[in-house]
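Catalogue entry: protein

Sequence with per-residue tokens
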Amino acid sequence: MHRREFLAAGLAALVSSKALAQMKMDDMSNMDSMPGMDMGGHDMGAMSKGAVTLPEGEALRELPLLANEANASGRFKATLAAQPATARFAEGLDTPILAYNGSSPGPLIQCFEGDRVEITFANRIGEEESTIHWHGMPVPADQDGNPMDPVTAGSNRVYAFELPEGSAGSYWYHPHPHGKTAEQVYRGLAGAFVVKAKADPIPAEYGDTVLVFTDLRLAADGTMPGNTMTDLMNGRVGDHVLVNGQKNPRLSVGLGAKRRLRLYNATNARFLKLAFDGAPTAIIGSDGGLLEAPVAAEDILLSPAERLELVVSFDKPGPVTLYTLDYDRGWMGAGRPADAGLTLLTVDVSEAPAEAAPPLPGRLRPIAPFGTPAVSRRLVFTETMTMTATDMQMGFLINGKAFDMARVDIVAKVGETELWEIVNQADMDHPFHVHGTQFQVIEHERNGKVAKPPYLAWKDTINVARGETVRLLLRQERPGPRMYHCHILEHEQLGMMGIVDVQA
């Protein structure tokens, strides 16, 4: 039997027989004790199926800005507290969530390249450890918020780092405690971090609008159900996609306006293939900042954790929608969510013309390609499952191994360019993320056909489709342990993660 068929059949058999599903992976026998990861008696069809209706059409909220407490130029100082809170997504229902400073998504952090940043993290999440991982940002290893450096419940931790010149880009922050990351993120802990350039080629008249996509599942009483077996296999996909915490909000612009939009996929596992209806779109930036030149796009794919910067031209009056297209990322078992036809944002273009604005520059910034790599590495993604009458063993593996916090998987050298070949032999797509640096994708290979990416970009997350090999070049500039992993957060927790020790 093909592996995909075996996995799907095994899950169905497990559920239909009402057997006890206990996950037993190397060094992870305590999985049942992880919050939101109870394996006993889960029904594959236990998703809430959109039972709760959310209001739509409210004006798009701007994310609250994290206030800068520093009184000196070139410094940013603030406090972020992770704590329980209550949100009202639907009328008459209060939903317990986790929030940063009472907000989900968390407050928007805005700094400039060259700034010195000092953020005190206060962990007020009951009895749970947490961290703040500065996703994609060039920070020292001991400031990265990795799983080996947890912040205990009730304690504080100061993260301090400098933002080097050339680091302007669209980053984000989220927890990274091993075994709890997935639950803490879907309960509400995620926020955007924008590092601005001192000399920005994008006209200020375009604005700078941050759109954070999150995924929500609500039970009829307003609570968030825990993860099911289907969630653990495929990654958690909710019933509602929210933009800045709202369902299908509205944005008003003048006729002929150009708007700069920063798109963040902050979901656990939802792949977003997006298009604007009738509005020309240009990609101007990726995870690590601006491209060399704008690239026209009819649609875009944002896998979990990816970001894109767009300039959208609103040249016709009337409503313009940002909507989803179908994307088959691979799905185990029944109940694949509907991907197509979701309206995420409605832009109301008025009859009145917008104020005149300069054209989008044809050149944005130079990107120097990496030179010849000194080292080549090969990482192979697989999933496995074996079953007995009362037991299931399931794994998401890299090079045949599940994550072990005490094991170093790769030893690298500071400043040395490496070629990484990411081979996906699994039956679903896996978005691949490396901590501490930005890389350049040089080619994709599938079914013997090699294709170059449509543009050169700085990336920290790249989707590796099932059956695909992605080759990338990277270089770590700071010593210390760094993580690499699938950014479907349930897969990360279930083994698809490793450690690279970068040595000076």
Observations:
- The two ends are 47 Å apart (CA to CA).
- Residues 3-16 form the longest helix (14 residues).
- The mean pLDDT is 91.
- The chain has three domains: 75-196, 204-353, 367-503.
